[in-house]
Write a structure and sequence with these properties.
By secondary structure, the chain is mainly alpha-helical. The protein contains 6 helices and no strands.
Length: 116
C-alpha cells in the first residue's frame, strides 16, 4: 500500500513527475477507463481513481492511460524545446520520461500480482 501512496504523490507533484496533471486530465483518464469519478480536488480524484481501478480490476488500463498522457506531454515539450531550448523544459522532459518508466514498472508489478 505504501507504493500506491508514493505513486499518488509522484503523479501529483510537477517537480517529481515533470508533468502537471489537472482535474480535467483525471476526468478524461477516468472516462477512458470506464470509471466514474466526480470533479473535485486533484488529490481526492486521484485517490478515488486508483481505488476504483483496483476494485474494478482496471489498474493496468489506468496506468497505460497515464503513460499515454505523459507521452503526449513529452511530444509537446519536445516541440517547445525545439523552438525555445530552455533548461527547465529539458528537465521536465527527463522527469516525464522517468515517470513513464515508473508507470511501466507499476504495470509489471500489477501483472505479477504484487501491490503497487
Amino acid at each position: 500500500m505504501a507504493n500506491i501512496a508514493m505513486l499518488e504523490r509522484h503523479l501529483l507533484t510537477l517537480y517529481s513527475s515533470g508533468c502537471y496533471i489537472s482535474n480535467f486530465d483525471l476526468l478524461h483518464i477516468a472516462k477512458e477507463c470506464g470509471i466514474h469519478i466526480d470533479l473535485s480536488d486533484r488529490v481526492k480524484m486521484l485517490k478515488k481513481l486508483l481505488a476504483q481501478a483496483k476494485e474494478e480490476q482496471k489498474t493496468e488500463k489506468l496506468l497505460r492511460s497515464f503513460i499515454h498522457l505523459y507521452q503526449k506531454r513529452i511530444q509537446e515539450y519536445q516541440r517547445l524545446y525545439e523552438r525555445t531550448p530552455i533548461p527547465p523544459l529539458q528537465e521536465h522532459l527527463q522527469k516525464a520520461t522517468a515517470t513513464i518508466r515508473l508507470l511501466q514498472i507499476s504495470i509489471q508489478k500489477e501483472c505479477y500480482g504484487s501491490d503497487l
